[in-house]
Amino acid sequence: MLLDGKTLAAQIEQELKIRVQALIQRMGGKIPVLATILVGDDPSSATYVKMKGNACKRVGLESLPVLLPTSTTTEELLGKIKELNENPLVRGILLQHPVPKQIDERKCFDTISIEKDVDGVSSLGFGLMSMGKWAYGSATPKGIMNLLEHYKIPLEGKHAVVVGRSAILGKPMAAMLLNKNCTVTICHSKTQNLPHIIGQADIVVGAVGIPEFIKTQWLKNGAVAIDAGYHNGGIGDIQKEGLSDKCSAHTPVPGGVGPMTISTLIMQTVESAEKFSTLTP
Question: What is the pTM (predicted TM-score) of this model?
């Protein structure tokens, strides 16, 4: 089974469009805003921000691009985030990763209001989510969970191996799977006997950021392969060759996890706006 994130994301957008129209009516014609902060001129980051802005337009949200120079300091970026926190129409704040090296990225992530952390990057959001409490989930792992749920992939009691340990992908992915009663192993590029560990997995999530790092032959027959990587040439973190014959289900690259990341970000922005609209006259 091909876990088609592109088609599911398009379906979700159609549903969100209806919800946004109702929201705007409820808010007296005011349009909820997703603010996207881009520091520097990294072309890949600029492309991602543009894609998120286009997704906003498709569902009827307003996108507010905040473009800051490469020389921006931590204090300057914190000031901009605080300004957006205080703007009632801004219902989501996205700080595009990575930021230039002189900036304390974690401090900036953690300054984003929990109610507006629709990309799920704050320490508070991660802590609450890992404890099974409410928070907006990190967009990529939450998108993967939405995809698994849509395709009714069994999770309870399954052995999931997450290859990658980043704060906004590998670690929250493991916590979300654990919350769904998976038995979870976290691995990374330094893990010993990695092929053996992956060979025991019912579900493998490739989130290590290295092209085709995970080999098809390592997977056991019938495993579910989720590829959260993307590299030039449409290559993921999991080797493509023979994948459809080996796995019971897998995500394509592109068209699998990527569209679900953006759709989850937009969905969580709409949820934030809906919560706000019920609290204001």
Answer: 0.95
